[in-house]
UniProtKB/TrEMBL annotation:
Residues 12-172 form the MATH domain. It comes from Racocetra fulgida. This is 13142_t:CDS:1. One of its GO terms (biological process) is protein catabolic process. Residues 198-266 form the BTB domain. InterPro entries: BTB/POZ_dom (IPR000210), MATH/TRAF_dom (IPR002083), SKP1/BTB/POZ_sf (IPR011333), TRAF-like (IPR008974).
Amino acid sequence: MTSAQSTEMSNKTSYTWSVKEFQDLYTRMGPSDFMMSERFASSQSVTINPETGAKDPIHWWRLILYPHGYVNQPDYLAVFLTAFRSKHEKKNRAKSRTVQRFWFELFRVDDPDVKSKKLTQLAIRKFKKSVFVFESLDDVDTLGTRKLVPFAEIFEDGKIQNNVTLVIRVHIINEENEIRTNPFLSSFEKYFMDERYCDVEFEFDCGSSIKSNRFALASRSEYFDSLFNGEWSVAGTTPIHVKGMKFQVFKAILYYLYTDKLGNDLSLDTLQNLYFDSEARYLEDLKEMAVIRIGEMVNVHTWDQILRFSLKINEEQLKKTVMSFLHDNWDE
């Protein structure tokens, strides 16, 4: 009753899933019952065997369809994209997978028994930069929508007995480079806090200060570039007073701009503040790093604080990490 087709182009992967005789699935399956597509791979590949040249995909995916709706949304078709941790990701101990964006398209095939088929688009749902998190005991993660389209729009005039074929397409834009390599950024790391190359100093209410290089910051951040062309435009020996930000958070931002990394000695409170300050300065990758690190810090002492934080920022994956921890450790 289903067929599939996968196409690849540069860092974009598109997969088409045709679900025939959908009306039978709708009537025979209940809310929360689901079906899965075949596995399909993203366009990037990694060589596994250097002698034979055998390759294994970096990313494996499936689509999940709830033909009679999700358990608490029985009036809507639910569709999800599921990430499966690949051999490459397991080998490199990857705890998450990031895609720049992905989106679903849903079509109904009008008159599926007729040779010249006409597609009617029923819905399109887009997702911005998304992180699929692999839990310690689970090699899959799922993102999607419980309300892609009402069933009333799938069945014309409410005629459930009519023959219906649905076509579901997913388009995934992967990271440009799965493994980042940037010699220019790597060469910056050894200059972090090296006063020989510093031409600007920042001071804080706590009395601490830190020196840096204007070019290093401006070249990596539109926020700093704008400030150095505005209120901080005059170079000199007078320190710039930073208001409304803690020293450790600001230092973590500078370290990221020099190294493209997140510091290892950051407290939970610092990471939470870093999330908001990164968001305010359009540092999306750093914000994402902070969320992932916070998820790695869930334990019996921190779970409640992290759960409150996940609810505050509406971060579903972080919430799932906490709930999974509670499920596995409730007896303790």
